């Protein structure tokens, strides 16, 4: 029981002290970030901005050394998460499932099978 009282006292002191130092951390504030990382295998990155109210916009990407690429551009707001995916990955095709917009430049059908077979033989 004594350790519970000490822990509760410590937690309440921390909350008061943290609010003095940082303000009300529950309040969202505008931000912007981004990064890109590159290696011999390819690159990837992410960037996002948030307006401090209810809307975030951003994108992230993956580019592999073998030429495959995927970029997701999105907005997130009071109505949900709304992505648009652009890719050239084999096995994908342009569609709009579940409110997401897919834009594929990959070959489909027999052309995709031929390309996949030739890549497997390399």
From TrEMBL:
Taxonomic lineage: Eukaryota, Metazoa, Ecdysozoa, Arthropoda, Chelicerata
Gene field: LOC100898660
Keywords for this protein: Cuticle, Signal
Biased composition (Polar residues): 85-95
Keyword Signal attached: yes
Record's GO cellular component terms: extracellular matrix; extracellular space
Protein name: Cuticle protein 16.8
Stored PANTHER family: CUTICULAR PROTEIN 50CB-RELATED, STRUCTURAL CONTITUENT OF CUTICLE
Segment forming the signal sequence: 1-18
One of the record's GO molecular function terms: structural constituent of cuticle
Pfam families: Chitin_bind_4 (PF00379)
Residue segments, region Disordered: 76-122
